[in-house]
Design brief:
mainly beta, Immunoglobulin-like, 12-stranded mixed β-sheet, 4-stranded mixed β-sheet, 6 helices
């Protein structure tokens, strides 16, 4: 992630295909190990706008939730995050939660001075938020909750946070609350990996701001990883603007190395990928994707932004390939036997796919909530 930027795109998200007409609710009570209620605990569904805080009796309610599969997350300072996969039907769901004390917090922590904090914070924001135009309009409101550790031996920067990161995205009109569980950036390989649980709070603005947000949200969604996964699930890859080919014999940058023996020539298969041979139905509202080698993905409906063209992270074209390269080019590697896909554009396991190129460049500044659909946005703006 000459400089190479690769993104080990890891986000602990889970939700299934939403049924537009149905809505339900999730409620419950949050207690500690002594069964004492915990007022003020934050409760949310990952990657959605469904978020709330427990009342004085430790009770919470998330109304108006569309049935589907989610991850319910509960977090309170001094306690370990609680994460539970849930399946919501058309009837209200009650989930009672017991939080465990954070063992690290209970221990005596020796805080070492970070003389390079300004540098580490700059690296974190660049690698976590990205360098897109939207990233320039993002502000980390509480940088003091971040702690950094730099390993000189591996040249890796590790970041942790006990509280939610609060990020104001004035480009897309969201405040992103992000519960960070892992962040690591390696200076040698330029690989960045991060894990966490995002939630979105919609900002209110003037009619002019709302129109600008609607336009930029659509731009952020179209051609995104979420859009691509949805198009595979709905068997609409080419119709949605993606040209996909197989790239053979190319190692995963930063993860695999050439052995130096019997190295095969990197080749691009000229025929578009037939996804019906790669995708199988694995359950209700769930499909599995399995393939070898690498997917060479071109989103043809958008050009590369000016601040991306010319960078060395830009995926090089294959000289012998007789195909159109106009558009945003990304490489997608499968690191597991398969990944499961749902209609909301999410995949599990969340470390099953590895991205290079444009999708490695785009990061959390261009992240969109699950509730967003381009069709809905078009209808709203007619």
């Amino acid at each position: 992630m000459k400089v190479k930027y690769l993104l080990f795109y890891v986000m602990l998200l889970s939700a299934s295909l939403l049924k537009a007409q149905e809505k339900s609710s999730i409620s419950g009570t949050v207690v500690d190990e002594k069964h004492l209620t915990l007022p003020g605990a934050t409760v949310f569904l990952t990657s959605t706008k469904s978020i709330t805080v427990c009342d004085n009796n430790g009770k919470f309610s998330l109304p108006g939730v569309v049935p589907g599969n989610y991850e319910l997350v509960v977090k309170m300072m001094g306690f370990e995050p609680y994460v539970k996969p849930i399946k919501l039907g058309d009837k209200p769901l009650v989930v009672n939660v017991q939080l465990k004390p954070n063992a690290q917090v209970l221990k005596e922590v020796k805080i070492r001075p970070d003389y390079d904090r300004v540098k580490h914070l700059a690296i974190f924001k660049k690698q976590f938020l990205g360098e897109t135009y939207n990233a320039k309009e993002c502000k980390l409101l509480n940088p003091d909750v971040l702690y950094f550790n730099y390993d000189k031996g591996t040249k890796s920067l590790i970041a942790t946070a006990d509280e939610f990161l609060s990020i104001q995205n004035t480009a897309l009109g969201y405040t992103l609350k992000y519960l960070l569980t892992n962040f690591e950036y390696n200076e040698d390989t330029r690989v960045v990996s991060f894990q966490g649980y995002p939630s979105f709070v919609e900002m209110k603005g003037t009619p002019k701001q709302e129109a600008s947000w609607a336009k930029k949200r659509r731009e952020a969604y179209l051609g995104s990883i979420n859009h691509f996964i949805r198009s595979i699930y709905n068997v609409r890859v080419q119709e949605e603007g993606f040209n996909v080919y197989k790239l053979l014999n190319r190692p995963v940058m930063g993860i695999q190395k050439d052995s130096g023996k019997d190295v095969k020539q990197i080749m691009l298969v000229q025929e578009p990928v037939a996804f019906d041979s790669l995708v199988t139905v694995s359950g209700k509202d769930l499909k599995s994707l399995s393939y070898k080698d690498c997917l060479y993905v071109i989103y043809k409906h958008e050009k590369l932004p000016d601040n991306y063209v010319g960078l060395e992270l830009n995926v090089k074209k294959v000289p012998t390939a007789d195909i159109a390269h106009n558009g945003q080019v990304s490489l997608v590697y499968l690191l597991t036997d398969k990944v499961d896909l749902d209609g909301q554009g999410l995949f599990t396991p969340t470390n099953g796919l590895f991205f290079e190129g444009y999708w490695a460049w785009e990061k959390n500044a261009d992240l969109m909530p699950l509730e967003y659909t381009a069709k809905f946005d078009e209808k709203e703006n007619k």
